[in-house]
Recover the amino acids of this structure.
């Protein structure tokens, strides 16, 4: 009986190792807020502000529960609010968040954390309204993005 228990423990350790090595578990958290200047819409410099939080928790193999929201305002009449539906680590200190806004528009957001304290460290955000083919992007001139 003791021998079977040792083998069971070894099998469980091996299975857990395989799961952890394949990246099946996600416990990521990304937060941020601030402002950036956008030049992509018509060439005029626009002040954009945003705030967001997103956290994924669970087994990627079976689906991850994502909690969070994003609020964005380009101060030219475009305001976006989404509940974050997906959170994905796309590499290079960048995460992609997605969700649907109140107009049923598909929204994708990429956030990059290039270090601390935030200002002048190269933190970057891109907000894309896929449905309307609009996007806003820029390096932060105030605020911070943090990958926890």
């Amino acid at each position: 009986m003791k021998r079977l228990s040792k083998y069971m423990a070894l099998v469980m350790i091996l299975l857990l190792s395989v799961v952890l090595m394949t990246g099946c578990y996600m416990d990521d958290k990304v937060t941020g807020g601030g402002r950036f200047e956008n030049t992509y819409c018509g060439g005029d410099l626009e002040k954009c502000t945003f705030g967001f939080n997103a956290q994924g928790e669970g087994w990627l193999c079976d689906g991850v529960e994502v909690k969070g929201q994003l609020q964005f305002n380009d101060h030219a009449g475009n305001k976006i609010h989404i509940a974050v539906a997906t959170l994905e680590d796309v590499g290079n200190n960048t995460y992609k968040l997605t969700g649907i806004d109140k107009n049923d528009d598909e929204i994708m957001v990429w956030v990059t954390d290039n270090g601390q304290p935030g200002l002048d460290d190269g933190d970057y955000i891109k907000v894309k309204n896929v449905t309307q083919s609009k996007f806003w992007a820029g390096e932060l001139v105030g605020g911070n993005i943090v990958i926890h």
User: Anything to note?
Assistant: The chain has one domain: 26-147. Residues 26-147 form one domain. The radius of gyration is 19 Å. The chain has one helix and nine strands.
